[in-house]
Amino acid sequence: MSSTSSFTRFYDTWFDQLNQLLEQLRIAPKPPSSQDDRSHLSSLAQKIVSHYAEFYRVKSVATESDVLSVFTAPWASCFERSLHWISGWRPTTLFHLVYTESSILFEFHIADILKGQSTGDLGDLSPNQFRRVSELQCETVKEENAITGELSEWQDSAAEVMLGPFTDLSDKIGRLVSVVKKADDLRLRTIRRVVDLLTTQQAVEFLVAAGELQFGVYGWGRRLDHRPCSSASLMPHHI
């Protein structure tokens, strides 16, 4: 069995486990009313972060074994792959998620906030937290651009390598492995750094929102992949 097939099977199991962990977060008491509640939420949040770390650890092994197959992400739907940045989600997506969730919750609790009442959720980010999120976003954008630049250089040199000796091809594959690993490392570091700058309650809400986005894209993609396709729908319409 190929390493990519093994990773696809791992991904299916990993995805089911992620859903189970997120369900534990969804039903956990929020906001935490005691130190035990806070410890429980913090433990669950760290389990999910560790679960993502395990995903990228196993993916790294598959990347070293067959980077070309991993780059095409055969475990994902066509719709998911259309949204990919170097065989996965774009790290800066997390910042858009934080801002969106914060805005929604702020509007929902605006009456309480105007009364000076703290909600403690993502709608109640402090000015310092907003500043740190913005700084982290800028740093992540720079790293994304640098990795994208490396991939562009790799692609630009494709013709030269195809005309060269086999040793050049091996070196080129090695460079692509490095690019994919850097992208995955940035994804995991971004998750960890966003979680670190949030309170326990906010981190839980962020992880649940990220998971729901992931499951939403996954479900939508599977439905599109299994949608009946008639030849008539592929023909141009004439007025």
TrEMBL record:
Positions of transmembrane segments: none
One example GO MF annotation: sequence-specific DNA binding
One Pfam family from the record: DOG1
A GO biological process held by the record: DNA-templated transcription
Residue stretches making up the DOG1 domain: 4-227
Highest taxon, organism lineage: Eukaryota
Name assigned to this protein: DOG1 domain-containing protein
Organism: Salix purpurea (Purple osier willow)
